[in-house]
Design a protein that fits this description.
The structure is a single chain. By secondary structure, the protein is α+β, with helices and mostly antiparallel strands. It has one domain. Helices cover 38% and strands 12% of the residues. The protein has ten helices and five strands; from the N terminus they run αααααααβββββααα. The strands form two sheets. The chain has a three-stranded antiparallel sheet, with helices on both faces. A two-stranded antiparallel sheet has the order 3-4. β3 and β4 form a beta hairpin. α5 packs across α8. The longest helix has 17 residues. The N and C termini lie close together (8 Å).
Length: 266
């Protein structure tokens, strides 16, 4: 089934949906085996697009099997409800009555996402002084025009402190603080050459995927697992340069391919 979905990438026609859009539609109907879900979890946040067609029950079972952060913890952090609450649809993962926030061009979403992420890390037993160094960051340059975003989980050396960098879109030296949207973009170094961020993991996805509560909860769980892994992804920085130059679709395809290549055939 996965092979059949991947073939769809080559079926996109000029003037029609992009290859990534075609692939995304195929993923929505993809049924993943428990083994595939466990393998996907190990690939980090790039696995997010593959979770669209999976049931909440199957995803949570796989997280438990992998001894990973559970969706119960993620739902409590992101939506203030346990995953088995009557308001949570066990197939789609949608929370009845929840505020529609993510994937809808609302500036407050990134602040709320990081509040939830911090809460989730603390729930895993991480000390507050350590947790404040981990940030869910993103580049939203093409969120409005193309519906695509570049996400990153970073270790931020200054923690919650302001930092001064050359802003990516203006080229002007700017001081960013936690109450500003620009603070939640990844930066390599500040104006004095000191390291700001180390990228732990990254993924390029369709922005609208975050409209699904299940996907948001999985983002939190996978990001927390990324933090626990201790890995680093320096390949983010050249990918970001390509992204900012407009090569969004190739970067998204490569992000999807990292997971596809790691999944078992069935």
């Amino acid at each position: 089934m996965l092979v059949a979905v991947l073939v769809l990438i080559g079926c996109a026609t000029p003037g029609g949906p992009s290859p990534v859009e075609v692939f995304g539609r195929g993923l929505a109907g993809l049924v993943l085996s428990p083994l595939m879900i466990v393998a996907g979890i190990a690939q980090g946040i790039a696995f997010l697009p593959y979770t669209v067609g999976a049931s909440l029950t199957d995803l949570n079972r796989a997280l438990l099997q992998a001894q990973a952060v559970t969706l119960d913890d993620s739902y409590k952090a992101a939506f203030n409800v346990p995953v088995d609450d009557a308001r949570v649809n066990q197939q789609t993962g949608e929370v009845a009555g929840a505020t529609a926030l993510y994937g809808r061009y609302r500036s407050e979403a990134i602040f709320e996402a990081n509040r939830a992420f911090q809460q989730l890390l603390l729930a895993q037993g991480m000390p507050p002084a350590t947790a404040e160094h981990y940030v869910l960051a993103g580049d939203y340059t093409y969120a409005w025009s193309r519906g695509q975003i570049l996400l990153a989980v970073v270790y931020r050396h200054p923690g919650r402190q302001p930092f001064r960098v050359v802003a990516k879109h203006t080229g002007i030296s700017t001081t960013f603080r936690p109450d500003q949207r620009g603070w939640y973009e990844p930066y390599t170094r500040d104006v004095e050459g000191r390291v700001v961020d180390e990228v732990i993991d990254w993924a390029a996805i369709e922005y609208r995927l975050l409209r699904q509560d299940k996907v948001v909860a999985m983002l939190m769980a996978l990001a927390a697992e990324d933090v626990k892994s201790g890995k680093r992804r320096p390949d983010f920085w050249p990918a970001e340069q390509r992204w900012l130059a407009g090569e969004t679709t190739p970067v998204m395809q490569e992000s999807l391919a990292t997971v596809k290549n790691a999944l078992p055939a069935s």
